[in-house]
Design a protein that fits this description.
GO cellular component, one term: nucleus
InterPro entries: RNA_pol_I_trans_ini_fac_RRN3
Family: Belongs to the RRN3 family.
Number of domains: 3
GO molecular function: RNA polymerase I core binding; RNA polymerase I general transcription initiation factor activity
Largest sheet: none
Number of strands: 0
Shape: elongated
Radius of gyration: 31 Å
Helix content: 55-70%
Length: 508
């Protein structure tokens, strides 16, 4: 493995270190003494980076002596790993020279003794990925940090290319050493996240890295809501309350910055050549994103902002949009448990709010959803709606029908006359009069709007069903324990993201 070497000049050896690293017949006791002296020299050089670099280069040129003849690999590793890399490598050009020297030496050490791979990776992650230790609050990387990170990832990429097994080690160490959002500095957290996202470009398991990043974003978003919510519930202790507010602000600030970094990486992964989305080139990335979001993110009802990633990546191409919509609908009807009620609600909300979704797609969904709902209701044609009826048994049905009514109410003005005629042919009347009574178990605000629109555009006659529902006198309020924004989250009331990436893909 050849790491790019920028230090062209031959290091000028210090006499003391030259005397230590002599290829003579030294005894074990002499070697131990020499290593003690070597450690002291390295420690004393840390205040003078040019001298430290010269000495490290001299050590590097004698690696065969140290690692093979003297068999002191563990001791050399201990000396190198005690160097406070994070305090030194971000010091402008001198720090970059030191980093180059270190990485060059580490590369040669691995070539001689591959067992160094794991401790070297761990030390790089712990001592470089957290960024400049002197910056605790800033969310922007300095020029020195950017150069350091770039060179570090060049080293890591070459390491993975030469030793593919290193990819799994890096992935595991990245996850196990992720800084905690409470105890770490904001700058350290963002620096670490930046490096993790950069590592996706060369690590072999895209899914694991993306899953780690998404998991941290989930915790940040949920923690910002939880801390803020706890503070609202109990503000009797002024000091604790103030600390909670600060933590909530920190969590959401980290989420906001981290989410924007994540969206940048999503865009890059799905446009690997910098051009339009091409599934054949981005297949691994889109499959990983879909698995993570469809099996994890969208089923966490408390998440507000992170699910907007679906809306973002679906805007890249019509094919990708159709793929997302089809996957949401597939999950709805093939896994009809409580958690997957949310998929159809997200689907309807996305169709209403995403400016790039065509009305043809809306009509296709309405046809599929109405036909599915009619088939479902026919299976329960003998059901009786009374005080003993449990609507939760049919929650997936009511989620679909509520989505139908909501979508028609919001998109009716966008339909052409031809599309309106197609809508009238979808047999909404049979669905409305079905024994499962979908208008009864639908948010009142949606029912009111849908009934008015259905009458105006002659889509269906709802008045008889509405009057009958009033006469039933059933208390169905417990079935709706959330607001409209909760059920259809992609709207202007819940949107909290500062990123301009959504400016042209949302209707508001």
């Amino acid at each position: 493995m050849n790491y790019l070497k920028t230090l062209k000049a031959k290091p000028k050896a210090l006499p003391s270190l030259t005397n230590i690293l002599t290829d003579d017949q030294a005894s074990e006791s002499d070697i131990s003494t020499r290593f003690t002296q070597l450690r002291e020299i390295i420690i004393s050089n840390q205040a003078n980076l040019p001298v430290l670099i010269d000495n490290l280069n001299l050590i590097s040129s004698n690696l065969n002596l140290i690692l093979v003849k003297w068999r002191r690999s563990t001791q050399l590793g201990q000396i190198l790993f005690t160097i406070p890399w994070r305090n030194l490598v971000f010091k402008d050009q001198a720090g970059l020279d030191l980093l180059t020297c270190l990485l060059d030496m580490l590369s040669d050490m691995i070539a001689i003794t591959p067992s160094f791979i794991q401790p070297i990776i761990k030390n790089i992650i712990l001592k470089i990925y957290l960024g400049d230790i002197s910056d605790g609050t800033g969310d922007k990387l300095s020029s020195a940090e950017s150069h350091v990170f770039q060179r570090t990832h060049t080293f890591m990429k070459e390491l993975v290319e030469t030793y593919p097994s290193a990819s799994q080690l890096i992935t595991g160490l990245i996850g196990s050493n992720f800084p905690h959002y409470i105890t770490s500095t904001s700058h350290g957290y963002i620096s670490y996240l930046t490096n993790i996202l950069a590592s996706i470009d060369y690590l072999l398991d895209t899914y694991d890295i993306l899953n780690t990043v998404v998991d941290k974003l989930i915790w940040l978003e949920l923690s910002s809501y939880k801390v803020a919510g706890d503070n609202k519930v109990d503000n009797s202790k002024a000091d604790t309350s103030a600390n909670d507010v600060d933590l909530s602000v920190k969590c959401f600030s980290l989420f906001d910055i981290g989410f924007d970094l994540f969206l940048n990486k999503v865009h890059y992964l799905l446009h690997p050549d910098g051009h339009a989305y091409d599934f054949t080139k981005a297949e691994t990335a889109i499959n990983a994103l879909e698995d993570i979001f469809f099996h994890q993110v969208i089923n966490i009802e408390a998440l507000i902002n992170l699910p907007f990633t679906l809306v973002y990546w679906s805007s890249f191409s019509e094919d990708l949009c159709e793929r997302t919509l089809e996957r949401l609908w597939y999950n709805t009807i093939n896994y009809p448990d409580k958690s997957n009620q949310r998929t159809v609600l997200l689907l309807a909300s996305m169709m209403v709010e995403a400016s790039y979704i065509k009305t043809d797609h809306v009509l296709i969904f309405l046809e599929n959803a109405i036909n599915w709902a009619l088939g479902y209701s026919e299976s329960y044609s003998d059901v009786i709606i009374d005080e003993n009826f449990n609507p939760n048994v049919h929650s997936i049905f009511y989620a679909v029908t509520q989505s139908i009514f909501y979508l028609i109410s919001c998109k009716i003005s966008d339909f052409s006359q031809i599309q309106l005629k197609s809508l009238r042919l979808l047999n909404l009347q049979s669905l409305i009069t079905a024994k499962l009574n979908p208008l009864l178990y639908c948010l009142p605000t949606i029912v009111e709007q849908f009934v008015a629109i259905a009458k105006e555009h002659q889509i269906a006659l709802c008045s008889i069903v509405v009057d009958r529902n009033k006469r039933l006198g059933l208390d169905v309020s417990t079935f709706f324990n959330h607001s409209l924004c909760y059920y259809f989250p992609f709207n202007s009331c819940t949107f909290q993201i500062a990123s301009p990436k959504f400016d042209n893909i949302l209707c508001y």
